[in-house]
Amino acid sequence: MFSNILAVVAIQLLIRSVSSQNVTNEYLNHQCNNTQGTYTRGSTFEKNLNQVFRNISHLHLRNGYTYESNVVAYEVSKDPNIVFVLLQCRGDSYGSKCHSCLHTALSGLRERCPGNRGAIIWYDQCVVEISSVNTKGRIRYDSFFNMTNLKNVSSDAEQFKNKRKDLFNKLLVKATKDVSEKNGWYAVGETRIGRNKLYAMMQCALDLTPNGCYVCLEWITGRYDSYYFDRRQGGRVLGRSCSLRYEIYPFLRR
After folding, report:
1. Which H or E run includes 30?
2. Transmembrane ranges (predicted)?
3. How far apart are CA 148 and CA 31, in angstroms?
């Protein structure tokens, strides 16, 4: 089973003071997979893991994504020391910014899940998964968690919720239809609510198919929108396979 950080901690992280454009890279959450076992310092698994990260460090990461392994034919390999690494950066954090987030995430994994063969860690600008099991193209339903702002909208909550739902539906289609080579399954948008604006984004890991991305995003919007988000001014759902976020302030680079 995956270990989970207390929800109250995640919520407190979300409502930290932010600038009008969130260009920070705050740590958000991690999950240490205890079912895949552990490795020891200097072991073959650790050497393979370090080699995979070295290989990633030489990539351009122009689209902010890679899924790497220490063997080529990893679909059929029975190597007990095989390593798989997923790196998916936020759609506005590619290239050098993605590399920077990877470096931060690697240090975070070593600190929070030392010796785990399987683990996931989330920061504002990326998610990194290490695994001894091939998870490419799979929707990891067991990895999702949500974070919400403690503050509610002050007026016309029903209009706010309806506008948010409409924006989510538009981004769901956009993320899986309007695919760019730069950042793949990624969509951002905004809508006006009275004098204010609501901003949102949706993204899938690039190892998913278009249909897989749609299924993943549809699942998290259906599960979290009405109950968990309700009247909250901001919220997120993050997972290994897809994510969404909305706020009443701009939070992405332009």
Report:
1. strand 27-38
2. none
3. 19
